Each structure stands twice: as structure tokens, then as C-alpha cells.
Amino acid sequence: MKKNLKLGLFGFGCVGQGLYHVLHETKGLKAEIKKICVKTKNKERPLDQSIFTFDKNEVLLDPEIDVVVELIDDPAAAFEIVKTSLQNGKAVVTANKRMLAENLEEIYQLQQKYGKPVLYEGSVCGSIPIIRNLEEYYDNDLIKSVEGIFNGSTNYILTKVIEERKSYVDALKQAQDLGFAESDPSLDVKAFDPKFKLTILIAHTFGVFVKPENIINFGIDRISSVDLKYAKDHGLGIKLVARAFKSGEKIYGLVAPQFIESTHPLASVRNEFNAVTVEGAFAEKQLFVGKGAGSYPTGSAVLSDISALTYDYRYEYKKLHQDNHLTFSNDATAEVVVSFSGPVKISIADFEKFKGGFQGNGQQNMQGIVELEKIREWSQQDGINVILAPGASIEPRTPVEKQALAFA
Amino acid sequence: MKKNLKLGLFGFGCVGQGLYHVLHETKGLKAEIKKICVKTKNKERPLDQSIFTFDKNEVLLDPEIDVVVELIDDPAAAFEIVKTSLQNGKAVVTANKRMLAENLEEIYQLQQKYGKPVLYEGSVCGSIPIIRNLEEYYDNDLIKSVEGIFNGSTNYILTKVIEERKSYVDALKQAQDLGFAESDPSLDVKAFDPKFKLTILIAHTFGVFVKPENIINFGIDRISSVDLKYAKDHGLGIKLVARAFKSGEKIYGLVAPQFIESTHPLASVRNEFNAVTVEGAFAEKQLFVGKGAGSYPTGSAVLSDISALTYDYRYEYKKLHQDNHLTFSNDATAEVVVSFSGPVKISIADFEKFKGGFQGNGQQNMQGIVELEKIREWSQQDGINVILAPGASIEPRTPVEKQALAFA
User: Fold this and answer.
1) Given a cut of 50, is residue B206 above it in pLDDT?
2) A307 at B interface, C-beta within 8 A
3) In chain A, whose CA is at the least distance from the CA of B131?
4) ipTM
5) What is the mean pLDDT of chain B?
6) Which chain A residue has its CA at the smallest distance from B321's CA?
């Protein structure tokens, strides 16, 4: 039996406004917005003032409100809203990926403690229903990997830079003008945003909570002319790929740009679109493609979560309860193309296996196999860009191989 | 709380065997096969004989069996199994799309009457979780359309014929050798199989039960050299596209081959892969891609249904309960390329609007806009092939336009 839900909103930006609009267009959904808590006073708003409040307690302490929909930017304030809502017996819908990624284990425990659900489909890949599918549909499948393009803003930029030969600066500005970029573009272009999403998916795919800082991320903001030349010479594209997979009892993960051949399934995912590939033992590869940036795709996911609450849906975090001993590891290697210029010192000794290089116009690149930790090291030094080689995958180093290396 | 399920199987072909195998590999799933009812005696089988029976009542009347998994070919016998199982208080999992499409309204009513669910994710697009997503995730979204490639066998054949220049006969044989074709290939190549799937999706997308015979289907078995030349000359592919959409209070649907430009989202869906695009008012277009033929993708979907039954999942057919007055209609037009040879008489008068034609080597084609009923008429005459023109869509004819035509 469906419930009639009363909602309290925090934030009334694009997503909130779209949500308000669609709630009135949707016949099947029994939910109404009772109160909207906003920060800025004296701002023109398209609704009657009586629905707005500037006091969070008018939402959090209202016993009539069943569901708090949190749509603000600030992760710390958002986490407080989530905690207080659960303590006060309210369900929560949020799309705040950073807040979720940084606090996911605690949010899981708070849900157990207070018996109220937190749903967050809108936090990962916009309108693609990936969390729900991982929770519900793939819970019996032995999933090997999830990977894809998790950030619409950078995919838009890369499409313009690679396919339309725009400059990075112009492409970024265009993405911002279209409302695809987050309030702080560095979270996108330095690949923190897709890393937060990967963190969330790792919990729902493998039942492992990993802190975002443990996952290595490399952005797209250092792609140089020598990289673009490499792409052009080899007929390749560049995509910012987030991936995680299971090998033995370890989970490996990385977010980094990669040179992609035109036949790769992700090559045709352009502009603000996102894509997720789920590889199962039995279902094989499944690809989901949908818009990943903009207020409507996120609003659609938020709306689906609200709808799910009308029939008491909650994430069961089923893989957490399966008797596994999985842990996250960075003890692996990958083949990369490193480009740099000026006084940066990178030598063949940095590589596990060096494959070749190129030098010209004051810029260099070197290609070979490196440890993942080397990619992290380079991400913290200016002037170095890293792109995974075409076809490269993360290769776990087993203890046996390490032994062999120690005596080599 | 998860239940321990006891299963009774009907049929033990590839899907059943794969299912048996994976049930033993999956930690999280609490389900065991108690009995398997098979038809052929004296056949070598990979399990101990004690699990098999030739008497359907040993499954249907066993009070310990909670779930009947129906995996046989014969639609009439399958429907009897479904009915008797529900009457005896058992849930049912089936992948028999023909049986479902032909009896869906009655199966819906039987579920209401006996209070037990029938799940059938495996019946549509193999491993793609499309029914579950339409039921759960898109229930609040105003869906405009579903379309895609719903048949892996014909997509495999078309890929070989168009991209690898194989003959139709060779490509069909190859598909059969790989186990992609159904026991009766005419259901695939004449586009009945994707029509059954479209029938099922129309119920879950729009809440409308339509009889499969009301939907017009045109197959790929009459594609001629003049069609292949047309494709080559224009740089086009051919895909067998199933589609349904809402316009006003009407639902329109059609399954027919279409010339597809290389930039079309379905162009990159090759071989035995299936794809479904769902267009919502709010989520915009979502694309799902996965393997659509072979025992493993179907087995994966069957397994997910069994898993869902451990937590009492059932389809709610939510759109049926929304207050809509939608009905199915074929009163629409589409632009087609018709090819034919010999004594077949097609004239410009058959078209609502004639656009042009080509003649050579005893074969002809004509291009223009026709009524959907004309496509049905041609499907019943030998020697005529119909392919939707590139970019063509189904255009509903409003009563107003009809009025105008009557006086034209």
C-alpha cells in the first residue's frame, strides 16, 4: 500500500525546482512538499513565500514531515542534516556524493540504528539507476567489475577537446555555461567527483567501505598538446574512466583518463552522457548509458527515490552481509603514458617496465608499466600528466610475484 | 528477512543447467532445486536420476515446493503449468515470452486471484533488467517511449549480413550453430519473438494489455540484394527495431527492420547484443545494452527473479492502477522503403505520399509514406520487403487530419 508522503526540502536550486515541477505532473506519486529550507533571504523565488523557511528546525522538528530531501552543496552541513533527520525518525533522499563517499559507513550504521532509510540514486551517474540495479538485480550475481564514465562535465570537455579540437579552457567554460560543471570545477576536472561516485558503487557492488582518499584519482586538467598528438597519431580518444574490480579477496580501483580505441564501448559515450558497465559471472557485461549532468537527470533520480519511499524501499546493502573478507588494495600496476615538460625529473627507473618515449617542442612522454602508487605520487606533482595506455588494465600484484621481484 | 526457497523446475535444457550450476556458486542466494520435471526419458543427464521426474504432479502437487521455474518451449503447456502452480499457491518464474504475450492479462488476473507472483525478467532482452526497471525505477516518470533491439538472433544475422557481407542463409546457420536461434527460427526472423517482448513491455511501460496479433511485425527474412545496395549506397545499417510510444491517449507500436545511420545509438549494438532505450519526460533517454541470446543471459535473469522471490518481490503493474484511458492503435503512418520483384503489383497509389523509386536487375524499390495497415498487408504477401526509411518514425494520424483527408 502506498503512503502519502510529506516532504521537507533543503535547497531550492535547479534540482529542487525541477522536482517541485514534476511532482505536480506525476499522477502516480503521492508526495507533497510541505516546507523548503533555503539559505539566502530576499531572493526572488517562483513559489509563494509561505512554503519557505530559513530555520532548519522547521523541517527537522516537524513531526508531519516523513522525508527530508537534502539538495545543498556543503558536505558537512548536509551530513548534519542527514544525521538529525534519521535521529528524528525521518527518511532521507540525497544526491550529495561527496558527503556520502566520505561518511558512507557511518550513514549505513545510522540507518541500522534509527531504522530509517537513506536513498541516494541521484548521487551516482545522474539518471542511470545503477545503485538500485546493483542492490536489487545483481545481488545474486558474482560481480567481477564496475567501470565507466561517471562524470558528465569532464566527458563533455573531453568530447569538445578531442573531437571538436576546442581548447581545454573554452570547453570548460562551455560546460559551465550549460550548467554541467559543479560549483567547484576542480572536483570534476581533478577527478574527485567520479572518485566519490566510485566509492559509493564499491560499497553496493562488493560490500566494502573504502575511504575516498584510499582510491587514487588523476584528472583531465593537465592533458597537454603532446597527449593530444599521441591520441591523434594513434586514432584514439581520451575518456576519464572510473573502475573497480575484484581479484581474489581484494578490490582494486582507480579513476584516471585513458586512451580509448574507437571500437571501445565507452568511445560512443559523448558529451554530458555517463555510462556504467557491470560485469557479472553469469550476466556478462551490461552497459547502462544516460545523461549524467544537469538538473533534470539528477532530479529524475531523486524523484525515483521519493517514489520508492512510498512503498518503504530501503537499500539492504546485501553484499555487506555476505560472508566475504574483501579489502581494498592499491598493490597493482598499470600501463601509462606520462607526459611532462620543463624541469620535471621522470626516469626509466620510475617504471616497472619501460616501453618507449617521445620528445619534441620541449615536451616529453614516456610509456610503460608503473605501480598505482606512482600514479598517486605524480598526481601530487605539478607538470606531470598521466593517461592509461590504450587497452591497459589494472594488474594486481600477487604476493608470489612480489617474492619473485625481491630476488630479481 | 530472506526465505529459503525450494524450487521445482520444468525443463532442463541449457538455461536450466546453467541455473543449476550457478545456484551452487552463489553465496547469497537461499534456494535449492528439489525436483526437475523433464519430458524425454532415457536421456543422459549430468545429475543424479533421483532429482528428475516425468510426472508434472510431482512438482505441482508437492507442498514443499515454493517456486515453479518454467523453462519449456511449448506455450500451451507452459500456460497450464503457470495456472496450476498459482492455483496451488506457488510462485512462478518463467522466460516464455510467447506464452506471456498471448496470456498476459489473464496471468495478471490469476496473480491477483491467487495472491502469488509470476516473474519473467528472462522473457525480455536476456540479461537486461528492463521489466524490473520499468516497474520500480520508472514508475513515477512519464514515459514517452520504449524502443530497441529485442532479438539477439536476428541482430546477429543482420550484423553478419550487413557488416561482414555474409549471405542470409550462412548467417542464419551460424546463429543456429551458436545456439542463438530459437527452436523455431521463423519466430525470430519473421519478428514474432521481438513482438512478444514488445507486448510484455507495453504492459509494464504504459499499463496497457494488447494482444500480440494487434501489433504489426515485419521480419528480416525478405531482405533482398536491392535493399543491401540501398544500405551500401547510403552508408546505412539495418536493424530490426521494436518500438512503442504514447501520443495523446493512444499507444502505438511496431516491429520492423529499419535503415540506421552509423551515428544512431543502436548502430553500435552488434551481434547477439540487445538494447532498450527508455525515454522519460524527466530522465530523458536511457540506454540499456546487454547480451540478448544464449542460455547464460537468460539464466541470469531467471536467477534474479528467484532471488527477488526470497524477499517476496512481485510486479505491481503500477501503471495499470494509474487512472489512464490509454488504448492501442495502429492508426498511423511511417516512411518505408519497399522492395519487390516479379509479378508483385505495388503502385504509387499504395502510398500516402510517394517519394521515389529505383528499378534494376528485375528488382524494384519504392520509397514513401504508408499507413501501418499497409505494412501488415504487405507482410502477408510473398515477395515484398519493407524496411523503415532512415530516421523514419511512426506518425499518429489525428482525427482532425483524417477529416481533412476525407475532403481532399
Assistant:
1) yes
2) yes
3) A137
4) 0.79
5) 90
6) A28
Euclidean distance between the first and the last CA atom of chain A, given in angstroms as a whole number = 67
Contacts A142 to B, Cβ<8 Å = 25-26
A118-119/A91-94 β-pairing:
parallel
Query: Are residues A306 and B140, on separate chains, in Cβ contact within 8 Å?
Result: yes
* Cβ distance of B282 and A301 shorter than 8 Å: no
Instruction: Tell me what pLDDT residue B154 has.
Output: 95
Q: Look at residue B136 and tell me if it is in a domain.
A: yes
Band of residue B182 on the pLDDT scale cut at 50, 70, 90: low
A139 touches chain B (CB under 8 A): yes
**Helix/strand/coil (H, E, C) string of chain A?**
CCCCEEEEEECCCHHHHHHHHHHHHCCCCCEEEEEEECCCCCCCCCCCHHHEECCCHHHHCCCCCCEEEECCCCHHHHHHHHHHHHHCCCEEEECCHHHHHHHHHHHHHHHHHHCCCEECHHHCCCCCCHHHHHHHHCCCCCEEEEEEECCHHHHHHHHHHHHCCCCHHHHHHHHHHCCCCCCCHHHHHCCHHHHHHHHHHHHHHHCCCCCHHHCEECCCCCCCHHHHHHHHHHCCEEEEEEEEEEECCEEEEEEEEEEECCCCCCCCCCCCEEEEEEEECCCEEEEEEEECCCHHHHHHHHHHHHHHHCCCCCCCCHHHHCCCCCEECCCEEEEEEEEEECCCCCCHHHCCEEEEEEEECCEEEEEEEEEHHHHHHHHCCCCEEEEECCCCCCEECCHHHHHHHHCC
**Nearest residue, CB atoms, A304 vs list B27, B128, B140:** B140
Of B286, B291, B303, the CB nearest to A127: B286
Is the same domain home to B279 and B147?
yes
* Nearest chain A residue to B286, by CA: A290
Cβ atoms of B257 and B241 within 8 Å: the answer is yes
Report yes or no: A288 at the B interface, CB cutoff 8 Å: yes
- CB atoms B286 and A283 under 8 Å: no
Any CB–CB contact under 8 A between A25 and chain B?
Answer: yes
Q: Of A10, A86, A18, whose CA–CA distance to A52 is shortest?
A: A10
- Structural domain includes residue B39: yes
Residue A332 falls inside a structural domain: no
Cell numbers for B378: 504487405
Q: Does A306 touch chain B (CB under 8 A)?
A: yes
What residues 193-232 of chain A have any CB closer than 8 A to a CB of chain B?
none
* 8 Å CB contact of B282 and A290: no
Q: What is the domain-level CATH number for residue A84? A: 3.40.50.720
Q: What is the DSSP letter of B133?
A: I
Is the Cβ of B359 closer than 8 Å to some Cβ of chain A? no
Q: Give tens-digit pLDDT for B230-283.
A: 999 999 999 999 999 999 999 999 999 999 998 888 998 999 999 999 998 777
Out of B76, B96, B119, a domain closes at B119
B90, B119, B148 — which closes off a domain? B119
Closest Cα in chain A to B142: A26
Question: Between chains, do B291 and A280 touch, taking CB under 8 Å as contact?
Answer: no
Considering the domain architecture, whether residues B142 and B263 belong to the same structural domain is answered as yes
| pLDDT the model gives residue A401 | 46
Catalytic residues of B: 197
- H or E element, residue B255: strand B250-261
Indicate the pTM of the whole model: 0.86
| Residue from B121, B140, B307 to probe the interface with A (highest A Cβ count within 10 Å) | B140
Q: Is residue B302 part of a domain?
A: no
**What total of structural domains would you count in chain B?**
3
